[in-house]
Write a structure and sequence with these properties.
With about 350 residues, the chain is of the alpha/beta class. About 45% of the residues lie in helices and about 10% in strands. It is built from 14 helices and five strands. It starts with 5 loop residues before the first helix and ends in a 5-residue tail after the last helix.
Length: about 350
């Protein structure tokens, strides 16, 4: 049997170590260069498939990309940074699937951590478009009148609950609604074309609809007379005002009955709008497990996207995930506010509905 000398043995050991280090370095470099594939869905999907998965058409996504591209930078210094288009598609996919970030990350080809950051960044960027796409300035009296003959309606108002996880033990109970779930009570106003005119997404689920309205910029807008000769329509949770008309609780005359019938049919527009909004973006109908500020950004962002979809005349799309029956339409207790003013409502009943 041959034996190596001490020097030869050390030399051979060093060569073996060098070879091992070279192989390890080669494998490490190979691993670093392996990235998840990112598909160009604008090309591989047809128009129907694209709209079904991302809830917007290709042309609407291109428009959105032009508008928020300045806010979406490629974060990574490497050449494989996530493009603004893929960031938008990831966020849209999240809105369509709910809170399954793993599925969203795999669909686009990024890590879960990157997916979470991108959803937050894109939502906040889209939310900045709110003043451009959500406004009560547009007059649509004739469109509302065509529904049920109710004159001079500018918009219809209601609240809807968006389920969330409890923010924390200190303030969590503020977000527990009357059905025992944690939620945000979101005030929404829409026009006859089911486009949002106003969205307020910062009040906890325990808040009453009237409380939200009384502390909103919308009320100040109305108090300043900027609705001109028009009204908002709301349910009995709101106080009756010269600019906000509510149903008559106990109608007795034919004019009062016709008023209520027309009021209910016209006000049904907001319920339809909310339903279309939540079906297009199921994340709103499922429990969101994000930070509170990010949840608010998602709500505002999806309201902007809803209006963009309506402007592009996109057909309603079915939800890709199962949405439970909407149990969050919480009937508010009827309030009798001392500040209620039914004079305008009485005049309308006598001068219009009683003559029909």
């Amino acid at each position: 049997m041959e034996y190596l000398s001490s020097d030869e043995s050390d030399m051979e050991l060093l060569e073996m170590i060098d070879e091992f280090d070279e192989e390890s370095e080669s494998e490490e470099n190979l691993i670093q260069k392996v990235y998840k594939a990112r598909v160009d869905y604008m090309i591989v999907l047809n128009n129907y498939e694209f709209t079904y998965r991302f809830r917007l058409s290709k042309s609407a996504v291109r428009e959105l990309l032009d508008l928020i591209n300045p806010y979406l930078k490629v974060k990574s210094p490497r050449n494989h940074g996530i493009s603004p288009l893929h960031q938008i598609l990831l966020a849209l996919r999240f809105y369509a699937l709910g809170t399954m970030l793993v599925s969203v990350a795999d669909f686009i080809g990024v890590s879960i951590a990157s997916a979470s950051r991108i959803v937050n960044d894109v939502s906040k960027a889209i939310a900045k478009l709110y003043p451009r796409f959500v406004s009560i300035e547009r007059h649509c009296n004739e469109e509302f009148y065509a529904i049920a003959g109710f004159p001079r309606v500018r918009g219809v108002i209601d609240g809807t609950h968006i389920l969330i996880q409890s923010p924390n033990s200190n303030i969590g109970e503020e977000f527990r609604n009357r059905k025992g779930s944690f939620s945000l009570n979101v005030q929404v106003v829409c026009d006859a074309s089911l486009r949002f005119q106003n969205v307020v997404a910062r009040w906890p689920g325990s808040s009453h609809d009237a409380t939200i309205f009384n502390h909103s910029d919308l009320k100040e807008y109305c108090e300043q007379g900027r609705l001109a000769n028009s009204w908002l329509l709301g349910d009995s949770a709101y106080p009756c005002k010269p600019y906000l008309l509510t149903p008559i609780l106990n109608p007795t005359t034919r004019g009062e009955q016709l008023y209520n019938e027309s009021h209910i049919r016209t006000r049904n527009t907001i319920e339809r709008c909310i339903g279309v909004w939540k079906r297009r973006f199921p994340v709103l109908a499922l429990k969101m497990r994000l930070k509170l500020e990010n949840i608010q950004a998602v709500i505002i962002a999806t309201s902007v996207l809803h209006n963009i979809a309506r402007c592009h005349n996109l057909e309603e799309v079915d939800a890709e995930v199962h949405i439970p029956n909407d149990e969050m339409n919480i009937d508010e207790e009827i309030i009798h506010s001392p500040s209620s003013d039914a004079t305008e409502r009485r005049t309308l009943v006598d001068s219009w509905f009683s003559t029909l």
